[in-house]
Amino acid sequence: MERSTWGTRAGFIMAAVGSAVGLGNIWRFPYVAYENGGGAFFIPYLFALLTAGIPILILEFTIGHRYRGSAPLSFFRMSGKKAEWLGWWAMFVSFVISVYYAVIIAWAMRYTLFSFNQAWGEDTEGFLFSDFLQLTVSPGETGGIVWGIFIPLVIVWAITLGILLAGVKKGIEMANRIFIPTLVLIFIVIVIRAVTLDGAAMGLEAFFKPNFDAIMDPTVWVAAYGHIFFSLSVAFAIMITYSSYLPKKSDITNNAFITGFANSSFELLAGIGVFAVLGFMAAQSGVEVADVASAGVGLAFVVFPAIINEFPGFNGLFGFLFFLSLTLAGLTSLMSITETYVAGFTEKFGISRRKAVAIGGGLAALISILFATQGGLFFLDIADYYINQFGVAAVGLVEVVMVVWILRKAGTLQDHANEISDIRLGGWWKFSLGVITPIVLGYMMFGLLRLNIFQQFETDTGNYEGYSNMFTLFGGVAVAAGALIFGILFSLGKWHKNYRYYDEHSEHPAKEKE
């Protein structure tokens, strides 16, 4: 079976950047930087990018390109059954993320329409939680379906699965060639407007003013590594899958540097835009930037609508552009996340892309209805926390330890990358992967385990967000553990005969031997 390939190198880079640039770049990075030393945060951030982000990107690009398969198939071809489970684990982590990520895009899509007449009114917080999400139930209860979320959710899945059905070149590549330039253009317009607002300078000063004392704090460095890790779409099985579609002669290392720095450039652009607007909000309200700065859902769906209400003109247009940028950033990430299990199922069971999209994508879309209920936000919040901390971060830690120390494949992969890349890998790459990344991720994981096992959150129950033990166990812990359990179970079955054998030296490694 001939493997799908990207049409052009630019198409692959746009798809990789599209995957990396997601909602977190816009609503998470600016606040993380602000909270961890402002301008001084860029020192640990850049260090983390060069010693963890780009090295892991190179690792995953090389694995996918060398072994020519989805994450489970690539790990199977690397070291058989003892490594295959890791690919499935990463793939099921992606499956879980896709299920709730689609719902946030549906919110953004709906808010894009709300922007025209500022339908959220003056009380943006009350509108989000009471009118829009209809959050009238306790954590763990579903309540009824919220049709105002369900309908855009159906549209999100229809767009995503429609793109994936069209294939790698005509679907994913074509969509990213349209979405990514559009997203960048929209955000440049947002930033230009934002920096011309009254109070913008105050916001930018808060964002860029360096607090050099902060970089002596180890938690700031952990925050930098944590953010780089989640921001670049590594350990999601995505980059392995995407790079497996590269032609035989592809500059792996260069592609990784371009992807890493393009993602960081967009984050910086987002930071300027967000904090310029927060400065305007602070000036209008007569308060400090610290009083209005926030991250996540609150920033996007409470603070930004309130800011749009205060705009001196073209409120509707600015709101439309902001929420359209969230929608586009979300869609490019969702299609990459979903492609991981479409590719995995296609290869494991030897089914067509159409069937894999229908089964995998259809199942994810069906489960995502849970998050379109009245209690959906609680399920989303706890699943997001646990699958990120004990799914993505854990996969990343296990991945580097297994590849470098247990399977001893770093040298083989380094040779493969050096054969086809302009920038040659040396001791820096092996040291970053084998020493720096495991130490930082291990330290992070130890802290997270201690925080959760001993219930050390500053809440009434000691659990994340004060959730009950039962809801934490079934809504969070079970979801993260489920990804690992399903990963192990799927690795037990045999591969379809078309993918079972692999000739590493073949000119077309994707043409399998019977």
What's the topology here?
Elements: H1 9-20, H2 23-27, H3 29-35, H4 42-67, H5 71-79, H6 81-114, H7 124-132, H8 147-165, H9 168-195, H10 200-208, H11 218-231, H12 238-243, H13 252-285, H14 289-292, H15 296-310, H16 315-349, H17 353-367, H18 376-406, H19 410-420, H20 427-453, H21 469-492, H22 497-500
Structure description:
- By secondary structure, this protein is an all-alpha fold.
- It contains 22 helices and no strands.
- The longest helix has 35 residues.
- The C terminus is likely disordered.
Question: What's a quick, concise take on this entry?
Answer:
The chain is mainly alpha-helical.
- Give the count of helical stretches: 22
Mean pLDDT: 94
Question: Uncertain segments of ≥5 residues (pLDDT<50)?
Answer: 507-514
Number of strands: 0
Residues in helices, as a percent range = over 70%
Distance, first to last CA: 10 Å
**Shape from CA axes?**
globular
Return Rg in Å.
Answer: 22 Å
Structural class: mainly alpha
Q: Could you give the order of the helices and strands? A: HHHHHHHHHHHHHHHHHHHHHH
Report the biggest beta sheet as strand number plus sense, adding barrel if it closes.
none
List key phrases describing it.
mainly alpha, 22 helices, single chain, 514 residues
